[in-house]
Specification:
The structure holds two protein chains of two kinds. By secondary structure, chain A is an alpha/beta fold. Chain A contains 23 helices and ten strands. In chain A, a hairpin with a 2-residue loop joins strand 4 and strand 5. Chain B is of the alpha/beta class. In chain B, strands 6-7-8-3-9-10 form a six-stranded mixed sheet, with helices on both faces. Classes of the chains: A alpha/beta, B alpha/beta. The interface between A and B is large, with 150 and 150 residues.
Chain lengths: ~600, ~600
């Protein structure tokens, strides 16, 4: 039940785009009641704790030595127990409610961030480092959770303890009350000052920790060099220097702590002694009853000691807000609208693709594709030939709308690409990348990654057979249940590539993109992959990125790319008949064979 | 990130290992005066706290109740004086404990780092760097935390209980017994809770690393996720995991929230009993008002340590697990060490001979990487090693450098088994250039000087000139004082290789080993590297794991290594005539190199050189 209520999606983006405090408050949405209740319970339990001392005062003044003493004593004892029970219930309520709120908010943040990350545009991911993102979505989210579940509550506890106990003192005697809190502003001011310093010293200490870690990291990854030059001593000295400096910074940090606590002890202690003395004097003068004095002594302790922690809590809270800002920076980014688009055909596309003067730039003014035009008929194979960075990959990234072109038009089945929802395009386009990426789950789950979970196993195996990987999978002890990745078997590059082919086959896309899919594969598996690819390409419009003439020869249309432009297009025969880049490449390959023969002759001759 | 924790993340034993604890405490031995100091300080703090409560009782009973302000004043004098004593003790315990903690961390890190420098390459081959780093950083933190703050908390708790007991017995021993009766109950309840809370936290940590893994995969695989349109199913799966996290986290929070009030209620029961029983006693004059007040305070005193028991216990467990991992690393024995009678060879010039050498890794002793390997290399000979990946080329080089030692057979340098020499004696005379050259963050000059630490600036530049690195260094921002970045990542692979060549030149070794880079380097840099290699190979015995035809052809002898054996051996023309492995390798390589050089796309562009 709890999960259900919790999983309702709220638009966190709207929430965090407000002013900070409002935004932060907005995170609690759906838990306001619980959180208010937690705060309220906190106050109630503080009241109960102090009421114990009132009961003690009553016991001393009105029960002790009165005639109905022995009848009253059990009642007072039960009163203590009752107060403790009530206090216990409310402490529990406060802890459990705030804990639950924190966990809920954290869960909601995690889910939202996860979804956010997979729905942000490619350009977002191009700009951000994985490590930093993970840092934000894990430890910063945890800091926000602590802020809600612990730090704010601790802050509330200190404040409510102070208010309740101060109220009680006012009730006992207002002059005494005011004289008992003289040190409070001093303590609070001092603790805020100190903890500001402490957090700065801590930052230095942490930075040095980072330095030390990178020295260690570098030493370990360069261990062969260290050994090869027999530089162990030198490395030890280098580490020693940073290690010692961290020790010194740690000492500095401790100095602040070691000064703050005793000084605040003395201030608080002096205040208490002063209070005790005043109280004693007033009692002796008859202004206070003996019971009041006893209650006063206990209450004073509960008033003064928590105050010392205020500075620490405030610094922690400000750090929590910094984490919150870091988390919101991700949340504020715009998602890719997957379903946006006014043209959604029911059927799969035929696969006719027309580029009309398409220009695309990642950054304004730097065209990666320049005025590209060509037409691919349904079912044709289009080969893209050119060097690295000539725009081939950028061109195929436009088809599933990973990026949107900046000028010109792309038409799919006669309709402009921007009118199709991204989801429709991606459902109907299959991509096989140069670097095969598999997820850490079983091979079966990897193959059926893009289709419904209830697909029959026979289909999965059929896809694997078609991708020439079925037999390999069956040599593993757990066959299709074999885990891939860190905790499982290590597949070779060729095996991984064939699993991704099976995955794409099962998806059965109308348009296929093969981005240099065979380049990282050794010669033995290349033939098998080629066969699998051939099967995959049948009846689909296929874009084939390649470096070698042999791979593109059979294509229906070959586009020769250089620096973002199509410099030649046509079939193999047409291109060979023209003067140009394509023929040069072809000639070189023929020339190389002749060279090889000559070289062999000279070496053996 | 979490992923490296997968490596041998032993589930820590719930049982206490006495030996480990003793060994942990052993870390404190050199600093025992500090330990003594903080133990005395914390004892003083705790004792004074109890005494202050006792003074309060006397102020109430002898001063306030008797309406004698003089007594109150008299009693406050020692109170005030002792406040300063206590403040001094507080200062002392924070300072001593904290600094000692830093010191223990420092010692542990130092010890581990020094040990790591001596461990053999085989240790590094089977141990992920991330794993080692967590041992040196977070595990040493945990152990230090335990022997300082953990010990302090424990002492403080015990002292609180002892001093509170003492004063309660003084005030009224009958009532004190009532309080003691509830201690065992508290302990039982506390340990009931503690077991469950620890379990939930463990669960939280486990799920948390799964969540981190899921994020990691989602971010690194985002392109695939998008192209396969998996977003909805992914989120559904992930929500399942965060749901588990919610439940485990909430159970932990719930248990902690329940723990405190339960303890408080149990205390209240004994407090009620005291009032009840004490109330009756008061009637008979046995218990004073101050006494009751003091009893309440003392009970709070004793409660703190019991509440904290669970936390300290959990930390103790963690720290023991951390210590076990640290010790496992410190106890790892380097497999390649100097023999007792090892001597410095003075020079390692001379023929190098492999005699029936066999090599297998420790974890797979039956799978020989190299078997029945025999080779005689004459002083000054240049050997090129070629062959497929995993054929055993690197193993041969690692054996010569004595990063590994033969499992069977011998390697002789100048007629002597090289195990009779010291490691330092051999390795300081070998120059090595690795395939992926590793540089240390710092300046270019510092990196070259790594080859010979006492080299002058002029010598550094001379070495750079010989290695062919001088020109590009001069053109860089900052020249020799330019930063290379972490791992050298501000430079291209070719530039890194040139600098590591200069580093080797400066060391002026007697023997040279190089693993050529496979990745393409622009033509100019390539030529410079060749020049640098030539310098190194002149008059020196050298082993080159070769990928470039020019290097291969320049060698005096070519070894084709396949399946841990020499498949073919001879000069270039001899091997070409055999039309075997070498012939195939060579022609294939030749085609690729030519294709690379002649690529019209690249030739088309004047500034296409580089990475």
């Amino acid at each position: 039940m709890v999960e259900q209520k919790n999983s309702e999606i709220i638009d966190l983006k709207k929430v965090v785009s407000q002013k900070r405090l409002k935004a932060f408050f907005g995170l609690l949405q759906g838990n306001y009641g619980a959180y208010a209740m937690a705060t309220f319970s906190l106050a109630v339990s503080a009241i109960c704790r102090s009421a114990v001392y009132l009961l003690l005062a009553y016991f001393v003044d009105d029960v002790l030595g009165t005639p109905n003493f022995s009848r009253q004593v059990p009642l007072v004892a039960l009163g203590f127990l009752g107060l403790a029970l009530v206090q216990g219930i409310f402490t529990y309520a406060s802890g459990t409610l705030s804990g639950r709120t924190g966990e809920r908010v954290a869960q909601r943040l995690r889910n939202f961030l996860y979804d956010q990350l997979q729905r942000l545009s490619f350009s977002f991911h191009d700009r951000h480092k994985t490590g930093e993102l993970i840092q934000k979505v894990t430890s910063d989210v945890d800091a926000v959770r602590r802020f809600i579940a612990q730090e704010s509550i601790e802050f509330g506890r200190i404040i409510s303890l102070f208010l309740v106990n101060f109220g009680l003192l006012l009730y006992i005697n207002s002059r005494l009350a005011w004289l008992s809190v003289i040190c409070v502003p001093i303590t609070v001011g001092m603790s805020i000052f100190f903890f500001g310093r402490i957090s700065k010293a801590y930052e230095n200490f942490q930075n040095q920790d980072g330095v030390l870690s990178s020295v260690l990291q570098e030493n370990l990854s360069g261990v062969r060099v260290v050994k090869a030059f027999a530089r162990q001593r030198y490395e030890i000295d280098k580490f020693e220097k940073e290690n010692w400096s961290k020790y010194l910074l740690g000492r500095k940090l401790l100095m602040w702590h070691s000064v703050f606590w005793p000084v605040s002890d003395i201030i608080t202690g002096a205040q208490m002694l002063y209070g005790f003395y005043l109280g004693a004097q007033m009692t002796i003068q008859g202004i206070l009853t003996l019971g009041d004095y006893i209650a006063y002594v206990s209450v004073l302790v509960w008033l003064l000691w928590p105050i010392r922690n205020l500075g620490r809590v405030i610094v922690q809270m400000s750090q929590g807000l910094v984490s919150f800002d870091r988390v919101s920076s991700i949340i504020k980014e715009d998602r890719e609208p997957l379903d946006e688009g006014d043209y959604l055909p029911a059927a799969r596309p035929r696969g006719e693709i027309v580029f009309e003067n398409v220009t695309f730039e990642y950054e304004a003014g730097q065209a990666v594709l320049n005025n590209v035009s060509f037409r691919a008929a349904p079912g044709q194979t289009i080969a893209l030939l050119g060097s690295t960075g000539s725009g081939k990959t950028s061109l195929v990234s436009l088809l599933p709308r990973f990026y949107d072109y900046t000028a010109g038009r792309i038409l799919l089945d006669g309709v402009e690409l921007k009118r199709y929802p991204r989801r429709y395009l991606r459902d109907n386009i299959g991509i096989v990348l140069q670097e095969p990426f598999l997820f850490s789950r079983s091979i079966r789950e990897n193959i059926r990654y893009s289709v419904a979970d209830d697909i029959p196993d026979s289909d999965i195996e059929q896809a694997a057979r078609a991708a020439a990987v079925h037999d390999v999978i069956n040599t593993f002890p757990k066959a299709y249940e074999t885990m891939v990745g860190e905790r499982g078997v290590t597949l070779s590059g060729g095996q991984k590539q064939r699993v991704t082919l099976a995955r794409t086959l099962l998806k059965n896309p109308a348009i296929l993109i093969l981005d240099d899919a065979t380049s990282s594969v050794d010669t033995e598996t290349e033939a098998e992959i080629r066969a699998a690819l051939k099967q995959l390409m049948e009846n689909r419009t296929t874009f084939l990125i390649a470096h070698r003439i042999q791979s593109v020869m059979l294509a229906d249309l070959i586009l020769v790319f250089d620096q973002g432009k199509i410099v030649q297009q046509g079939t193999h025969e047409e291109l060979l008949a023209q003067e140009g880049m394509y023929r040069k490449v072809f000639d070189i390959q023929t020339m190389i064979e002749e060279e090889v023969q000559r070289e062999v002759a000279s070496a053996t001759g | 990130m979490e992923d490296y924790n997968e490596f041998q993340e032993e589930e820590f034993s719930t049982k206490f290992n006495g030996r480990t604890i003793l060994r942990i405490l052993g870390q404190l031995k050199p600093h025992w005066p500090w330990v003594l100091g903080f133990l005395v300080a914390i004892t003083l703090v705790s004792g004074l706290d109890s005494y202050f409560t006792y003074l309060n009782k006397r102020i109430i009973d002898e001063g306030v109740a008797q309406r004698d302000i003089g007594v109150v004043f008299e009693l406050m004098k020692p109170y005030a004086a002792l406040l300063f004593v206590q403040a001094a003790a507080v200062f002392a315990f924070i300072w001593l404990t904290g600094v000692l903690g830093e010191r223990v961390r420092y010692d542990l890190r130092k010890k581990m780092f020094e040990h790591l420098q001596n461990l053999s390459l085989s240790y590094y081959n089977r141990t992920p760097v991330g794993w080692i780093i967590s041992r040196v950083t977070s595990d040493s933190d945990r152990v230090a935390e335990l022997v300082t703050w953990g010990m302090l908390d424990t002492t403080w708790g015990i002292m609180n209980i002892i001093t509170a007991t003492y004063f309660m017995m003084i005030i009224n021993w009958k009532l004190a017994l009532i309080v003691f009766a509830c201690i065992p109950v508290l302990v039982v309840v506390a340990s009931w809770f503690q077991k469950r809370i620890i379990k939930e936290y463990r669960e939280v940590r486990k799920i948390n690393s799964r969540i981190t893994g899921a994020y990691n995969e989602n971010i690194t695989g985002v392109r695939v996720v998008k192209s396969l349109g998996r977003e909805v199913a992914n989120l559904r799966e992930f929500s399942g995991t965060t749901g588990e996290m919610y439940r485990a986290g909430f159970r932990a929070a719930w248990l902690s929230a329940l723990f405190l009030p339960v303890v408080q209620v149990i205390t209240a029961v004994s407090l009620g009993s005291i009032i009840w029983y004490g109330g009756i006693q008061t009637e008979f004059g046995g218990m004073t008002l101050g006494g009751i007040q003091a009893f309440i305070a003392y009970m709070t005193f004793m409660l703190f340590p019991i509440q904290e028991m669970a936390r300290v216990y959990a930390e103790l467990q963690h720290a023991i697990a951390s210590a076990e991992r640290i010790f496992s690393m410190v106890d790892a024995v380097p497999t390649v060490v100097d023999l007792p009678a090892a001597r410095d060879p003075g020079s390692i010039r001379g023929d190098i001979v492999f005699e029936n050498v066999r090599f297998a890794y420790d974890d797979a002793p039956d799978e020989a990487v190299l078997a029945d390997f025999n080779l005689h290399v004459k002083q000054g000979e240049n050997i090129a090693l070629v062959g497929p990946t995993g054929g055993g080329k690197s193993t041969i080089v690692n054996l010569i450098c004595r990063f590994f030692e033969p499992t069977q057979g011998r390697i002789l340098i100048g007629g002597t088994d090289y195990k009779e020499f010291t490691l330092h004696g051999i390795q300081s005379r070998i120059g090595v250039v690795l395939q992926t050259p590793h540089l240390f963050s710092g300046t270019i000059r510092e990196n070259i000087r790594y080859g010979r630490l006492d080299a002058s600036d002029a010598e550094v530049e001379e070495a750079a000139k010989l290695a062919g690195a001088h020109r590009f260094i001069e053109e860089l921002d900052g020249g020799y004082n330019g930063q290379v970045g972490e791992g050298g990542n501000l430079l291209s692979v070719g530039q890194k290789q040139l600098i590591s060549l200069a580093r080797a030149v400066l060391a002026n070794p007697e023997f040279f080993v190089m693993d050529e880079a496979t990745s393409s380097v622009d033509t100019l840099t390539e030529a410079l590297i060749q020049q640098g290699m030539e310098t190194m190979m002149k008059d020196r015995t050298s082993f080159i794991i070769a990928h470039r035809l020019s290097t291969i052809k320049r060698a005096d002898r070519i070894l084709v290594i396949e399946g841990g054996k020499i498949a073919e051996m001879g000069s270039h023309s001899e091997l070409m005539r055999q039309k075997g492995h070498y012939y195939n390798l060579y022609t294939q390589q030749f085609r690729e190199e030519l294709a690379g050089k002649q690529d019209p796309f690249l030739l088309n562009r004047p500034a296409a050189a580089g990475n």
